[in-house]
C-alpha cells in the first residue's frame, strides 16, 4: 500500500486530511511570504513608488502562476486518478508530459514579455515615475518563469505521490533563499526592484532543482524515464482540461488586477481619498491583493491537500469516502480561515505598516484592506467547489463553474459597483470599485453553492446504489 492509498483508505478522514493539510498550508504560507517579501523589502527601500512598481507587475506574475497550475494541478489530478486505478505507467507519462509543456509555455511567456515589456506596463497603469522600477522586475521574473513553473506547479506531482512534506521542504528552501538574498540585494546593496527580482529568481531556481531530484527518487509510486518526456497529446489535453479551472482562476485574477490598476489610476487621477496619491492608491490595491491572498492560504491549503485524496477515492469508485472528504474539507477550511481574518479586521494598520507606505497613504490602504477582507470567510465555498470538481475528474463541470464564478465576479466588481453605486449613494467611483469585491464574491459563492448542492444529491444516489 503506497502513501496516497494508505491516507485515502487506511486512516480516518479528519486524520488523513490534517496529515496532508499541515505541510500544504505551511508551504502555501511560505509561497505567499515569498511573493509578499518583494513588496515589503522594496517598500522599505523605495517607499510607496516601489510598492506601486511591484503592484503593477502583479498581473504578469499571476500569468506565470497560471501556467504553473495549468500543468501542475492538471497533471496531479490525472496522476491521482491513475494511481487510484493502479496505472503507474500512465502517471509517469503524465508527469513527463507536464514537464515538457511547462518548458515550452515558460519560454514563450518570457520571450513575449521581454519584447512587449514597456507597452504592457504602461497599459497596466505604470506612470513615468513607476516604469523604471517596474521594467527590470518584470523582465527578470519572466526569464525565471521556467523555474517558477517547476517549483510551484510540477512540485505538486510530488505531493500527489504521497509526499507533502517534501514539497514543504522545497518551498521552505525557496523562501529562505529569497529572504536572505532579498535583504542583501535590496537593503544592503540598494538594488531596488532589480535586486528583489534576482533574489526571487534564485530561490525558484534552487527549488526547481530540488523538485527534479525528488521526482527521480526510487520511492516514488511512478518511475520517470527518458521516454516519458515525449509529450502525449491525449494526456496533455486531459491535463489542460483538468488544470484549466485552477489556471483560469489565476488568469482572471491577473485580468482583475490589470483592470483594477487601470481603473484605480483613472479614478484616483480625478478623485483622491484624503491625502492619497495615485501611486498610493495603486500601492493600496497591491497590498489588498497580497494580504487577502495570504488570508485565503489556510482554506486553499486544506482544499489542495484534499485533492489527491478525493481523486484517489473517485478513481477507486468510493462515493461515500469521497463525500466525507468533501464535507471535512469545507469544515476544516472554514475554521482555518477565521483567525487571520479576524486579525486583519481588528488591526489592519499592522499589516499595511510592514509595506513602508508614506503616512498619508496608510488610512486609505487600511480601509481598502478591511473592505476586501470581509469576503474571506465565505470564500471557502468557492474554493471547495473548484477543487472538488477538478479532483473528481469532472472537467466540463469544473470549467463551466469557473467561467460562471469569475464571470459573475468580474461583471459585478468592475461594471456594476463602480458605475452604478455612485449614482445611488454619495460615494466616489474609487471607493465603489473596492466595494465591488464584496458584491462579486457573494455572486460567485451563490453560483458555487448551487453546483455543490446538486453534486451532493448525485453522490447520495451513488451511495444508495452501492449499498443496495
TrEMBL record:
Annotated membrane topology: Multi-pass membrane protein
Subcellular location: Cell membrane
Predominant location: membrane
Top-level lineage group: Bacteria
Keyword Lipid metabolism listed: no
Keywords: Antiport, Cell membrane, Ion transport, Membrane, Transmembrane, Transmembrane helix, Transport
Regions crossing the membrane: 12-31, 60-83, 95-117, 137-158, 167-188, 194-216, 254-272, 292-313, 325-342, 362-385, 397-421, 433-453
Name of this protein: Probable multidrug resistance protein NorM
Native organism: Raoultibacter massiliensis
Amino acid at each position: 500500500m503506497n502513501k496516497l492509498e494508505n491516507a485515502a483508505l487506511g486512516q480516518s478522514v479528519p486524520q488523513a486530511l490534517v496529515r496532508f493539510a499541515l505541510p500544504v498550508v505551511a508551504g502555501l504560507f511560505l509561497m505567499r511570504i515569498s511573493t509578499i517579501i518583494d513588496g515589503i523589502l522594496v517598500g522599505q527601500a523605495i517607499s510607496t513608488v516601489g510598492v506601486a512598481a511591484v503592484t503593477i507587475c502583479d498581473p504578469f506574475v499571476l500569468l506565470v502562476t497560471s501556467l504553473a497550475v495549468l500543468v501542475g494541478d492538471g497533471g496531479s489530478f490525472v496522476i491521482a486518478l491513475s494511481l487510484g486505478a493502479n496505472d503507474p505507467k500512465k502517471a509517469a507519462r503524465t508527469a513527463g508530459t507536464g514537464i515538457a509543456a511547462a518548458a515550452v509555455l515558460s519560454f514563450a511567456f518570457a520571450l513575449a514579455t521581454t519584447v512587449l515589456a514597456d507597452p504592457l506596463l504602461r497599459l497596466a497603469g505604470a506612470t513615468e515615475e513607476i516604469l523604471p522600477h517596474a521594467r527590470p522586475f518584470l523582465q527578470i521574473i519572466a526569464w525565471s518563469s521556467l523555474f517558477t513553473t517547476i517549483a510551484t506547479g510540477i512540485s505538486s506531482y510530488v505531493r500527489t505521490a504521497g509526499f507533502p512534506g517534501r514539497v514543504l521542504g522545497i518551498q521552505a528552501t525557496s523562501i529562505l533563499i529569497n529572504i536572505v538574498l532579498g535583504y542583501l540585494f535590496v537593503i544592503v546593496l540598494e538594488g531596488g526592484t532589480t535586486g528583489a527580482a534576482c533574489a526571487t529568481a534564485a530561490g525558484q531556481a534552487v527549488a526547481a532543482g530540488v523538485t527534479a531530484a525528488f521526482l527521480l527518487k526510487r520511492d516514488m509510486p511512478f518511475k520517470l524515464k527518458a521516454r516519458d518526456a515525449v509529450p502525449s497529446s491525449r494526456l496533455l489535453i486531459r491535463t489542460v482540461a483538468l488544470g484549466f479551472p485552477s489556471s483560469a482562476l489565476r488568469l482572471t485574477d491577473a485580468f482583475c488586477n490589470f483592470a483594477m490598476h487601470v481603473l484605480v489610476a483613472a479614478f484616483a487621477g480625478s478623485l483622491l481619498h484624503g491625502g492619497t496619491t495615485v501611486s498610493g492608491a495603486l500601492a493600496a490595491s497591491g497590498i489588498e491583493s497580497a494580504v487577502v491572498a495570504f488570508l485565503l492560504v489556510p482554506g486553499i491549503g486544506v482544499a489542495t491537500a484534499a485533492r489527491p485524496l478525493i481523486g484517489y477515492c473517485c478513481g477507486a469508485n468510493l462515493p461515500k469516502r469521497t463525500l466525507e472528504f468533501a464535507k471535512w474539507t469545507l469544515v476544516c477550511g472554514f475554521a482555518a480561515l477565521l483567525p487571520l481574518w479576524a486579525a486583519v479586521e481588528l488591526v489592519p494598520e499592522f499589516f499595511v505598516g510592514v509595506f513602508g507606505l508614506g503616512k498619508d497613504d496608510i488610512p486609505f490602504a487600511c480601509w481598502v484592506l478591511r473592505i476586501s477582507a470581509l469576503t474571506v470567510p465565505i470564500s471557502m465555498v468557492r474554493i471547495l467547489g473548484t477543487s472538488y470538481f477538478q479532483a473528481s475528474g469532472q472537467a466540463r463541470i469544473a470549467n463551466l463553474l469557473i467561467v460562471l464564478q469569475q464571470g459573475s465576479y468580474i461583471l459585478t466588481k468592475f461594471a456594476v459597483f463602480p458605475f452604478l453605486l455612485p449614482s445611488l449613494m454619495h460615494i466616489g467611483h474609487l471607493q465603489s470599485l473596492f466595494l465591488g469585491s464584496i458584491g462579486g464574491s457573494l455572486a460567485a459563492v451563490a453560483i458555487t453553492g448551487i453546483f455543490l448542492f446538486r453534486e451532493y444529491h448525485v453522490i447520495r444516489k451513488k451511495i444508495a446504489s452501492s449499498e443496495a
